[in-house]
């Protein structure tokens, strides 16, 4: 055997040995060689003395990395991270907007084409390399190490405004402990003996007024900051304290929190579904939701929005998925995890959609009945003043018990007879379908439409408390994943106490988050939501895909998975990773850029005098700020590539190293001799068990030339890195 290889050098060295990530990766979870037919050609169950040939230490325990207490904690963490507020207030809106039940077809197809494969990819690389996003991509391709830094930047941007939404939910949660609910009616202004309804509320609605004026106290433009909103500042502080307590001990604390924060939302959703189905009009809402408009499936916009929703629903590119999976054992079946979490995410979106449209169907019926009553009063007034003839009213219509069908018949007759002057009457059609077609999403759904519907529930405070407590838990689960995506790569790179790092991150984030609790803060939340994550994350994920499938090598990665999982994943993933997913992501990036170029950059400003929203374009400074979010998030990608390409900085491999105990090294130092014994005793080289992956290339003398691997019957080079790469010097 060569005398200058690493294994031989260990036998004669008294110095501590440091393994780089390339060697760390090669350590596999030991097989049960007693029951393996590969063990020196012996039959299964043979008791031949092979123990000495197998290194005893568990490589998962050697690096001192924390681990999940059990598989359930890990699954709940991934579910809690992927299932968030978007499942409740984004997915139902997209269904309604893009063809109802027909939208589910492109969504499910794209979930199979890009969702599950890319989710599986992130789980696999995190579990294989056992590092956060920065460490993983530094290893896979040092020149693309900026992928991890960009992921961290996006996590930071998203975490800043996402926790503000949790703060809003906390405020509404505490406001719900009163009857009647504070947003149930418009406030009354008293001027002596005269009592009038608040004009801004009268022009909008009670829930809209409570949201914009009493909660946000919003200004009329982004230029007018208006100072801090102290109620929202305190709510944001409480939100960051909750997040800090949840993540301060790493997965040891967040894993426990996930038992509640991941499961409780499902309890609330099922309760709302049962209660919603008992409400009048709930079936109308659900039927409207799932009535397919098949022509919508032919529109490119529907497929683009479905791809975007799949992309963000699973949390791809944030680094949280990689961070969580890095705490797994290497033999964990991450393929099963990827499929399970993706299916749970999809089913949760369907469940949330059923709940939302059952409640909105009830609200639509309430609003439609109110419309019928208001317009019937107008018609009675016209009849009493002689504007309309009583002969226009069908004889069977009773104004004291007027149904929607009776009003529709009366409305049709009046419109036909008074065709010339009908517009002057100011009558509304009061069609239930029109109410159901009023699409709302985001804060408009949670804090306006849904809260308004709950005011009509019997025992409305109870349901309001449950709803906003659910939103807090959904947001908290996602924030734990986001914070883990930030702290894990930092803890991997620097020796910092996780408690100190978590507290420091939360304090800094709270101070930066004060931008969003100004009176104009809602406009900045919209800006960050539109610009800080969309395009940067899409670029990050396609680079992740390319670095694994085309630079590292899909065949090599499939072999890694076989070594790690004990079985070879379906060939489906090979073609998805290598061809289909990159193509879909390129199309998604192009369409996103086109949409940004075509759509005017602006926000919906609240106009107090009109009691309504009005679209306004961003001023130059705000537009520069919006585009700078994209630039800052993506800047690490070219910067790291340049400095690594010209060897201006280290590839970071030293920060990914693990120091092993000498006792363990002594066991491993006999591997070369044992490999010779196995080769002699085995019929074929491929039958000899080895703790090193079969595809791992051995380097010849001097470490500059790869020895070929003949395990596949042909001579092929299978080193993890090219000869000239930094890893090839190992």
Give the biggest sheet. 2 strands, antiparallel
- CATH class label of the largest domain: Mainly Alpha
Count of the domains: 2
Number of helices: 31
> What percentage of amino acids are in beta strands?
under 5%
Give the second-level CATH assignment, the architecture of the largest domain: Up-down Bundle
Coarse morphology = globular
Assembly state: single chain
- Tell me roughly what share of residues is in helical segments: 55-70%
Rg (CA only): 31 Å
Give the low-pLDDT segments. 1-57, 653-730
CATH topology of the largest domain: Amino acid/polyamine transporter I
Query: What is the SS-derived class?
Result: mainly alpha
Biggest sheet strand line-up: 1-6
The CA-CA distance between the termini, in Å, is 18 Å
Mean pLDDT, as a whole number?
A: 79
**CATH fourth-tier homologous superfamily of the largest domain:** Amino acid/polyamine transporter I
Query: Quick one: how many beta strands?
Result: 6
């Amino acid at each position: 055997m060569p005398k200058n290889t690493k294994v031989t050098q260990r036998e004669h060295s008294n110095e501590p040995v440091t393994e780089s990530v390339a060697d760390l990766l090669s350590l596999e979870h030991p097989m049960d060689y007693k029951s393996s037919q590969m063990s020196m050609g012996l039959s299964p169950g043979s008791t031949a003395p092979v123990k000495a040939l197998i290194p005893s230490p568990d490589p998962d325990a050697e690096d001192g990395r924390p681990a999940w207490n059990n598989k359930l904690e890990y699954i709940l963490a991934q579910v809690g991270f992927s299932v968030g507020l978007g499942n409740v207030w984004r997915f139902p809106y997209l269904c309604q907007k893009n063809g109802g039940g027909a939208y589910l077809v492109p969504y499910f197809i794209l979930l199979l084409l890009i969702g599950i494969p890319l989710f599986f990819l992130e789980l696999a690389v995190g579990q294989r390399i056992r590092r956060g996003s920065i460490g993983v991509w530094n290893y896979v391709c040092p020149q693309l190490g900026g992928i991890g830094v960009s992921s961290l930047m996006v996590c930071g941007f998203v975490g800043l405004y996402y926790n503000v939404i949790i703060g809003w939910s906390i405020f509404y949660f505490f406001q719900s402990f009163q009857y009647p609910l504070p947003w149930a009616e418009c406030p009354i202004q008293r001027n002596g003996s005269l009592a009038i309804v608040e004009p801004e509320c009268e022009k909008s609605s009670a829930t809209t007024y409570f949201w914009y004026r009493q909660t946000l106290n919003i200004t009329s433009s982004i230029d007018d900051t208006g100072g801090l909103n102290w109620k929202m500042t305190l709510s944001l502080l409480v939100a960051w304290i909750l997040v800090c307590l949840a993540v301060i001990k790493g997965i040891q604390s967040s894993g426990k929190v996930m038992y509640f924060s991941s499961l409780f939302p499902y309890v609330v959703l099922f309760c709302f579904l049962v209660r919603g189905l008992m409400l009048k009009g709930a079936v109308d809402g659900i039927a409207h939701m799932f009535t397919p408009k098949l022509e919508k499936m032919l529109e490119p916009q529907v497929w683009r929005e479905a791809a975007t929703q799949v992309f963000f629903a699973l949390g791809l590119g944030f680094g949280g998925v990689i961070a969580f999976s890095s705490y797994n054992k290497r033999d964990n079946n991450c393929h099963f995890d990827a499929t399970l979490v993706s299916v749970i995410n999809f089913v949760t979106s369907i469940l949330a959609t059923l709940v939302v449209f059952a409640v909105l169907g009830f609200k639509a019926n309430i609003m439609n009945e109110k419309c019928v009553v208001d317009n019937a009063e107008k018609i009675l007034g016209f009849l009493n003043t002689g504007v309309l003839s009583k002969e226009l009213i069908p004889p069977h219509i009773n104004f004291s018990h007027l149904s929607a069908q009776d009003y529709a018949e009366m409305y049709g007759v009046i419109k036909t007879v008074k065709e010339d002057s009908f517009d002057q009457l100011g009558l509304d059609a009061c069609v239930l379908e029109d109410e159901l077609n009023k699409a709302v999403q985001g804060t408009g759904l949670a804090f306006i439409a849904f809260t308004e519907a709950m005011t009509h529930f019997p025992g409305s405070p109870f349901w309001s408390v449950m709803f906003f407590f659910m939103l807090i838990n959904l947001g908290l689960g996602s924030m734990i994943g986001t914070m883990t995506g930030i702290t894990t790569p930092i803890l991997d790179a620097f020796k910092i106490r996780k408690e100190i790092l978590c507290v420091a991150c939360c304090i800094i984030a709270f101070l930066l988050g004060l931008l969003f609790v100004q009176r104009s803060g809602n406009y900045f939340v919209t800006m960050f939501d539109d610009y800080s994550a969309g395009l940067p994350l899409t670029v990050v994920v396609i680079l992740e895909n390319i670095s694994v499938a085309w630079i590292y090598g899909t065949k090599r990665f499939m072999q890694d998975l076989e070594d790690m999982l004990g079985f070879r994943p379906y060939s489906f993933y090979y073609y998805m990773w290598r061809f289909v997913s990159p193509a879909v992501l390129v199309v998604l990036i192009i369409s996103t850029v086109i949409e940004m170029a075509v759509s005017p950059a602006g926000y919906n400003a609240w106009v107090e005098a009109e009691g309504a929203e009005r679209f306004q374009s961003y001023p130059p400074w705000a537009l520069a700020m919006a585009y700078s979010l994209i630039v800052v998030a993506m800047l690490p990608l070219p910067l790291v590539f340049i400095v690594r390409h010209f060897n201006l900085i280290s590839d970071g491999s030293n920060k990914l190293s693990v120091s092993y105990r000498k006792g363990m090294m002594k066991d491993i130092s006999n591997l070369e001799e044992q490999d010779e014994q196995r080769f002699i005793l085995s019929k074929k080289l491929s039958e000899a068990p080895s703790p090193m992956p079969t595809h791992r290339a051995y380097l010849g003398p001097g470490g500059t030339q790869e020895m070929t691997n003949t395990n596949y019957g042909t001579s092929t080079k299978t080193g993890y890195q090219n000869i000239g790469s930094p890893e090839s010097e190992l």
